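Encode chain A's predicted structure.
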Amino acid sequence: MQFKLPTHQKNSYKGHAGKVLIVGGSEEYYGAPILAALGAENSGADLITLFLPSEHVQTAKNYSLNLFLKKFKNSFLSKDNVPHILKEALNHHALIIGNGIGKNKKTVEAVLKILESITIPVIIDAEALIPEILKTKNQNKSFILTPHKKEFERVFDCVALHNNVKQQAVRHSMTILLKGSTDIIASFDGKAHKNETGCSEMKVGGTGDVLAGIVGSFISQGLDPYMACCSAAYYFGKCGEALVKNTRYISAYDLASAFGKAIKN
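Encoded structure for chain A:
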């Protein structure tokens, strides 16, 4: 398979492509949405807006100078925030939702409300991966799910095998990136691909959040969802392979920070 990276025209300008909106975090979890933002930032996104609880804003500031930060009205995502998020989404090219949002019932209601009305491609990850998302009436075909094995089985109520991933992608008109030692990527039109790059040292907390950020970044810069998932999984795995040549342990932050240099090499 020929993997692609986003390309920019010489006359392009800031915000012309690569505007990513991220909605995540809760009172307990703060790192996941920030890691997703760093994944997007280090894979070429121009502008990144991050909605998260107010108590985590300073932490986000400490990790990047380039984020536009918006606060939840509470310590968790709720319906009160939905109109503001949907309005903000109109000025972005892709939405990433779910990283660290927790399992509050009001948060689940807000996630479903957003998914019903969103008009841009949306990467659904982590705690937003619930069976109810399959019942949303949104006609937008650009839902991209990035589950690991247990999350896939939670959403689709079937075993996380290659044929099942392919069938569910077609059945529900979405793109699925099943994360694992071998990633399985399937599109709504029946295409499927296995990615075998990566290493066991990448099985640490937060790597999935970084990958979601990269997928969202690639989509925002013009790649179609299927190619964005295939390329993001391939190059993210190659980044991990490069890092473990010089160190025994790696973190999600290490992977996000090294991503641009690794794919250049």
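The chain has a mean pLDDT of 94.
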